[in-house]
UniProtKB/TrEMBL annotation:
Organism ancestry: Bacteria, Pseudomonadati, Pseudomonadota, Gammaproteobacteria, Vibrionales
Source organism superkingdom: Bacteria
Signal sequence bounds: 1-21
Keyword Acyltransferase included in the entry's annotation: no
Transmembrane segments: none
UniProt key word Signal: yes
Key words, A-Z: Signal
Organism: Vibrio metoecus
Any matching Pfam family: DUF2057
Family: Belongs to the UPF0319 family.
Protein name: DUF2057 domain-containing protein
């Protein structure tokens, strides 16, 4: 019985320790996820601003939604859905529009030529 703690310690040392590898994505405030890897996100009370995925290839469908300044005050801008396919391993990423969208003219320019930037901020 005296060897019980030593045996337990040795057994625990032999067990494989797996580190959960993941990809974390921080979404810009104006980006709303619609579908993540084929699973619909659905309507939420609190906007989903962080997504954690396993390592590998992924597909996100997102929309840019924001109040922008129009000619007679603020207007709601909702972009068409945008599909992103990417591969990542053990990274912290941010996803944001390539340019600032604050006015109706900037929103129309984004709609005509949408560009998002996926940046690795792991370092």
């Amino acid at each position: 019985m005296k060897n019980w703690p030593k045996m337990l310690l040795c057994s625990a040392a032999l067990l494989p320790f797996s580190v959960h590898a993941a990809v974390d994505i921080k979404l810009a405030e104006e980006i709303s996820p619609i579908v993540v890897n084929g699973d619909e996100v659905g309507i939420r009370i609190n906007k989903l601003s962080d997504v954690t995925l396993d390592n590998g290839t992924h597909q996100l469908v997102v929309r840019v939604s924001k109040l922008v300044m129009g000619q007679s005050g603020y207007e709601k801008f909702n972009s068409n859905p945008l599909v992103l396919t990417f591969s990542a391993n053990n990274q912290n990423l941010t996803l944001a529009p390539d340019k600032s969208i604050n006015t109706l003219a900037e929103a129309k320019a984004f709609d005509a030529e949408p560009k998002l930037t996926l940046t690795d901020v792991s370092t």
